[in-house]
Amino acid sequence: MRKLLAWLLWLWLSAVIVGAFLYAPLAKGFIGQSSRILFFHVPMAWVSFVAFIAAGVWSLLFLRGRDPKHDRAAAVAVELGVLFGVLATVTGALWARVMWGAYWNWDPRQTSIVVALLFYGAYLALRSSLEDRDQRARLSAAYAVLGLVVAPFLFFIMPRIMFSLHPQSVINAQGKVEMESRMVQVLLGGSAGCTALFFWIHNLRCRVQALAERKSALYE
Amino acid sequence: MAVFAKEWRGEFRTRYALNTLGLFAFTTLVVVSVSLGPLGVSLAQGTAVLPVLLWIILLFSAAAGLPRAFVHEEETQTATALRLAATPSALFCGKLLYGLTLTFALELLVTPVYVAMTSLTVKSPGLLAGVLAAGGFGLAAGSTLVAAIIAQARAKGTLFSVLAFPVLLPLLLIAVELTRGAVAGDAADVALLQLLLYDASVTVAGFMLFPVVWNP
Amino acid sequence: MVTGGIGWVVAVNLIIWTGLFLYLLRLGARLRDLEKKP
């Protein structure tokens, strides 16, 4: 059963990739073929935020039930959040270079992803500095929940501030551009696919970690 | 309240936090005002940059002074006694009040001197007072909770900055924008409400998360 | 290097997707290995 799902996922993602290159039209006003990268950049950024929320939710669940499964889930979510976040940042920066001539602009989206990465980094730093397993789970869960509380301010306040400070700032066009339906399809398909990919990798890593932990416990 | 009083008594005996805070704030103040005061930089550049630097000074002074709130207990092993004596909420309240008084004292000291030394003309002093009050509150609240979290970890100094910065970032950004507005003469902005909302959220989160952090 | 051409887009995607694919393969292998030993 799992094998089948895995193949389905890869098929879906392949379809998205092909679609991004061949099926969807180029966005107007973009330089050359560069807009194609957005079909991958946007889903990855989206997944990075999904990871943020997921880590927060799992941390809350852990604090309620103290089930180590939830702590593990939160930690893995953060690690994957870093992966997707870095990928999103890099693809975004490359695209920004083509579009606006500079790798970095501190426009709201770029800033949000950086802050998310800062949170992830802090979380992982905290975890690595605590050795006792229960303590580590407890404290990192608390921090993740704090992050969840602060998150709305970051992701909704940020754009407001940026725009009021620099009204003529570079506005990333994919926000308000009207998109042809094909583009929307590929974007949504990509987002769905990457989200599924996230949970798939997450599931695998959690299982690996759980088994590895149990195994090392057996040999002690 | 008893916790608060005890905190201050301990503090006056060592004066550690006050000294660190004060020293840091003063040094950075001098550096900033010398290089960016009326003789150093034009008026336009000054008004753009100075609000930011004020908050940077406040932030780093707080980072120098506030994390110690819990470390003292861990080091002297009085933590267990404290766990028995006070409820988590009371303890957090006491620590928070301590942090608040430190922060507000810091702001009261730094801001007038800063404004004077850089010859910054603030056109809406009321707004500035509001920003400092709301912003300072958020600084203290966030820092107290993070301090509690790292109290039991190892590399405390750097860990505090790493953990606190993302949490305090929205606070800082809003505060800087509002301070700029205060300098320019704006009236109170909806951003001030957002700041207060942030304060409320972080404080509530602090009260709810502290028992988790404090009790094993 | 980074122009409006399609070259770099393809390159970046190749790296990302092959990387992810290989990573998943390795994870799967590790999982099977762990689940096997009694």
Write the layout of secondary structure elements.
The complex is a heterotrimer of chains A (220), B (216) and C (38).
Chain A (H helix, E strand, L loop, with lengths): L1 H22 L14 H28 L2 H33 L7 H22 L3 H33 L15 H38 L2
Helix pairs in contact in A: 1-6, 2-3, 2-5, 2-6, 3-4, 3-5, 3-6, 4-5
Chain B lengths: L1 H13 L1 H21 L6 H23 L2 H9 L2 H7 L2 H31 L6 H26 L5 H29 L5 H25 L2
Helix pairs in contact in B: 1-6, 2-3, 2-6, 3-6, 3-8, 6-7, 6-9, 7-8, 7-9, 8-9
Chain C lengths: L6 H30 L2
In words, what does this structure look like?
- The complex is a heterotrimer of chains A (220), B (216) and C (38).
- Chain A has 220 residues and is mostly helical.
- Chain A contains six helices and no strands.
- In chain A, helix 2 packs antiparallel against helix 3 (68-100) and helix 2 (38-65) packs across helix 6 (181-218).
- Chain A is globular, with a radius of gyration of 19 Å.
- Chain B is 85% helix and 0% strand.
- Chain C has one domain (7-38).
- Chain C is built from one helix and no strands.
- The termini of chain C are far apart.
- The interface between A and B is medium-sized, with 29 and 30 residues.
Structure described in brief:
The complex is a heterotrimer of chains A (220), B (216) and C (38). Chain A is mostly helical.
Q: Which characteristics define this entry?
A:
heterotrimer; A: 220 residues; mainly alpha; globular; B: 216 residues; 0% strand
